[in-house]
User: Which sequence fits this backbone?
């Protein structure tokens, strides 16, 4: 049955994407995040060279995401880079991604990577806490993240850090149209309504 449902969806909607949009707690109400770990050191990265030299292809991609209106954080294991996170904001995010509309006091976590053999050791949780701290120090009130619908381990990592699901987004190209079109099923949390509640709009990635 599942096979036929997937085939019917592919026929009707064409290529499609399904995402959870997650939202951080309000940063000015957070206690000081604890990013200390006896095993891993979390700090901001200011030059892309360390990422570019990594043996991990995923970590090397971080080297292309430095620049203006960005925050890049790294996780090191005894001096070796094993994880990283990238936050964009302002015109940088609006012009290069623009998938989720941001207010002036909001930022977007566009990438979080942990070396595969070290996953499950809490590095992602440390990076998320470091993202919150770095964004708070720059005056942001909130950070958003986009997670593929079936990446349950990623969703759990954010929820463990007290992030909430803010919306579910479907991006599709129905009947082979050029599209794409986006449908957002928004959730209201703490009096904050996600934009474009359940409203189909043209989509920017």
Assistant:
């Amino acid at each position: 049955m599942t096979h036929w449902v997937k085939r019917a969806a592919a026929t009707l909607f064409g290529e499609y994407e399904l995402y959870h949009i997650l939202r951080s707690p309000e940063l000015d109400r957070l206690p000081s995040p604890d990013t200390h770990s006896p095993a891993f050191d979390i700090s901001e990265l200011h030059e892309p060279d360390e990422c570019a030299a990594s043996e991990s292809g995923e970590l090397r991609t971080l080297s292309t995401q430095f620049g203006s209106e960005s925050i890049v954080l790294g996780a090191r294991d005894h001096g070796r880079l094993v994880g990283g996170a990238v936050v964009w904001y302002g015109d940088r995010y609006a012009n290069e991604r623009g998938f989720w509309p941001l207010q002036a006091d909001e930022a977007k976590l566009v990438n979080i990577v942990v070396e595969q053999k070290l996953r499950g050791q809490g590095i992602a949780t440390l990076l998320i806490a470091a993202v919150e701290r770095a964004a708070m120090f720059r005056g942001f009130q909130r950070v958003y993240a986009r997670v593929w619908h079936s990446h349950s381990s990623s969703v759990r990592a954010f929820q463990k850090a007290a992030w909430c699901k803010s919306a579910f987004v479907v991006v599709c190209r129905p009947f082979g149209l050029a599209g794409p079109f986006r449908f957002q099923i928004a959730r209201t949390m703490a009096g904050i309504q996600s934009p474009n509640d359940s409203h189909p709009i043209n989509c920017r990635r």
Q: What stands out?
A: The chain has a mean pLDDT of 82. DSSP finds six helices and eleven strands in the chain. The longest strand covers residues 80-88. The longest helix spans residues 123-137.
